[in-house]
Write the structure tokens for this entry.
Amino acid sequence: MKAVATNAHSDIIKCVLKDALEYCCPKITLDTRIQTSRQEMEREFSKDLGHVMLTVSGIEFCAITFLHYQCGENAKNSYLTLHEADGANPTEKDWEAFYTELGNHLCGRIKNYFHKQFDHLGMSTPWILSPTTELVDLHTHQLFACGQIFYTYNNIPIIGASLRVYSSYALEFPNPINDSNEPTNSGELEFF
């Protein structure tokens, strides 16, 4: 699809990501100090962010989900801000496990948005990308829609998500706010 068509769906993609992230990580909405960012943090802070990648795929359809999380100096504070257990002394394994599971739930929630059109979708397991992995421009002729959303705490990005949807034919995007008849699968692993 052309860039014009892709841009036409960016608001819906952001709405999907916002709903999915807030559903999977309730502290985002409970902590009033966490703000939605208007900047493209993926580019600005690429060296300070870790990435969990998952895919939802089927016949003539693929969605790539990235969960972006803070690593480096701010990793511990970001983890403690988002995690339900306060006062813990987390290790790198703790926050990697937390973000991997969060990515799994996020992708499962996103998969549900496309369930009406594609009842055969499968979901991958979460994968933490190497710090040396660069998220190159993933625009191809089959890119149907893309978008991202980030949340900040004290002007530092603490959590974010990106979604790129690929399809060789037109898709209908459901409204994530008003669509309450969707299945309530929260991202369980599926083997296919």
